[in-house]
Amino acid sequence: MVFLGTVAFVIWQPGRVTPAVAATVGAVLALVLGVVPVQDVLTVWNATWNATLTLVGLILVSLLLDEAGFFRWLALHVARWGGGRGARLFVLLILFSAVVTALYANDGGVLILTPIVLELARALRLERAATVAFALAVGFVVDVSSLPLTVSNLVNIVVADAFGIGFAPYARVMLPVNVATVAATLLALWWLYARVVPRRYDVQALPLPASALRSRGTARLGAALLPVLLVGYFLAEPLHVPLCVVTLSAAGALWVAAGRSRALSSRAVVRSAPWDVVVFSLGMYLVVYGLREAHFTALFSRWVEWGAAHGTGALVFGVGGAVAVLSAFMNNLPAVLFGVLGIQGAHVPEAARSLAAFAAVVGADVGPKLTPVGSLATLLWLHVLARRDVRVSWAEYFRVGLVLTPPVLLVALRALAWGHA
């Protein structure tokens, strides 16, 4: 009951009940009612601190670069590369969104890319149908393309930490899966929206890319930090350095640079950072940990054991499909936490456990797009659209999610299974 009530309020968010508040109340209830022993709070914190602080660091980096105009500068270049052809622009924006998501995480990506795409649509005077098509394409891509790196999604970091999967081993498995997923997404989106994408657009109506830059020094430092960040991620594991140290160090360097610019307010960016993600992550994990104490996760453990006993395909599609459905209807963070505890409790060979963990990541990254409540990124996307007077009803979203998500999920899981055949 505590779990279901918490998830309901995370999704519903009535009044001032934010996801962080709902998760905190649920965690307190779990502790007061004895569902979770107080001594397990430290265990839960040890399982989530690196993931949440890494995400906060990445979003800080992305918000600082967005404040400097870096992503708008890039997006305007992408729009010019489209050469006035609507189809080419549609494809380029999807690929651009996939790259930004991979490097700066899905939650940061949706906050950055959605306003940019809406600004481009307004500058090009696109009709509502085309504007929604571009916005929904970006909103869909920021979740389903968050597979390739551990830092691309909070759930990726949670799973990697839980099973001791290093940055490089994770990337070796999931980069090919992500390529297949983005390709399938691109085909599905084009099939759905080809009729509303304008054939031509006026490149001259776009502002000059240089006009987007508010702080050239901060933007240059951000561009220089990107390869340093990637190298740092690969070196973090052998040097036994937590990923959050790498991302927070980069965020600190950018914050200092932004603070020296008169055009930026670095303090405002830090105040607007999603610090409540830390609270939400810890609180939600405590609530889900209560399901483990009540032996509910044992049911998932048996499901994992059944899949392992019936081969690679059964394990991948069984675990990935189950986590995808759970993610779609109760949000992907609690769903993947539930899956992690179930996989950890399953009596299977280590290779099967690792494969089940990767399948859970695929399910938690792609499955949420089935419904508007599946991930915080989608809820943020709907909120950004509403603030810009672009209304997408839940019914409209459901229709699109039901068409796009199942085939993309099947391609992603099949790519993972083939990679381990």
UniProtKB/TrEMBL annotation:
Single Gene Ontology BP annotation: response to arsenic-containing substance
Cell compartment(s), UniProt: Cell membrane
Keywords annotated in UniProt: Arsenical resistance, Cell membrane, Membrane, Transmembrane, Transmembrane helix, Transport
Gene Ontology terms for molecular function: arsenite transmembrane transporter activity
One cellular component (GO) term of this entry: plasma membrane
Database matches in PANTHER family: TRANSPORTER ARSB-RELATED
Record protein name field: Arsenical pump membrane protein
Source organism of this protein record: Deinococcus maricopensis (strain DSM 21211 / LMG 22137 / NRRL B-23946 / LB-34)
